[in-house]
Amino acid sequence: HNWECFLQLIADKQEELNAKLEKLEENQKDDIKSKYFPLISDYVGDEKQKEKIDFIVNGFQNMVSGANLQEDTLLMYYDTLNQISLLDIRVLKCYVNNSYIGDESVDTVSKVMKEYNIDVTQVRMIKEKLERLGLLESRNDVDMDSNIREMAKYLETVHKGKKAPNLKLKKINKNESFRATSFGRKLINLV
Predict the structure, then answer these.
(1) How far is the CA of 141 from the CAs of 114, 179, 181, in angstroms?
(2) Nearest in space to 42 (alpha carbons), one of 85, 22, 71
(3) Greatest CA span in the chain, whole angstroms?
(4) What is the mean pLDDT of residues 12-36?
């Protein structure tokens, strides 16, 4: 059933794909036909969520637009996509897309929680999974790393016997806060 969906989506986007392929060099077209298309197709049969087939096709279509096709990079994106669920993708999108307070069309973690009937603990698990995959990063971790670097510079200056400037540390929030990494944003833009 995944294959039917995949082939239908490719057929639906054939005109657009052909237009993008025409803009590429001959060797790039050959690579797409002989290397990248079969590589991406390998993900179709094993996909457990049929709705993600659309992401696989969109990723392929967007990849054809890109000038720098790298097999390892492509594998990294598709391996990561293979490890996350539609729910994970929805949560990640909440951090990628800028939300405006009062804009009802913007997806929020609260909306996702209500729609999927999940609690804060389950959302935390999803965020931690996305963080392990390099798609989200903890703002607190980033701030703590910055503070450690500042303290090290301060201590080096003091150790050298020089007058150290005031130590400027970032405040660490009590609540954990996450943001999308560049990889997380690129993955969402790919699919």
Answers:
(1) 28, 11, 13
(2) 71
(3) 72
(4) 88
Let me know how many helices (H) and strands (E) the chain has, helices first.
11, 2
Query: Tokens 């929805």 belong to which residue?
Result: 90
Give the CA count within 13 Å in the CB-facing half-sphere of 64. 24
Question: 27-68, pLDDT tens digit by residue?
Answer: 888 888 898 889 889 999 889 999 999 999 998 888 887 656
When pLDDT is cut at 50, 70 and 90, the band that residue 84 belongs to is very high
> Which residue stretches of 85-138 are H helix?
86-96, 109-116, 120-132
Collapsed DSSP state (helix, strand, coil) of residue 150: helix
CA 70, CA 31: separation in Å to the nearest integer? 10
Task: Report how far residue 62's alpha carbon sits from residue 185's, in angstroms, rounded to the nearest whole number.
Answer: 14
Q: Coil, helix or strand for 71?
A: helix
Share of the chain above pLDDT 70, in %: 87
Q: Which two tokens stand for residue 42?
A: 């390998």
Residue type, 50: K
Query: Would you state the structure tokens that stand for residue 49, as one six-digit string?
Result: 């969520």
Name the strand (E) or helix (H) holding 58. helix 52-65
As a whole-number percent, the residues of the chain with pLDDT over 90 amount to 39
Q: Do residues 65 and 14 touch, judged by C-beta distance below 8 A?
A: no
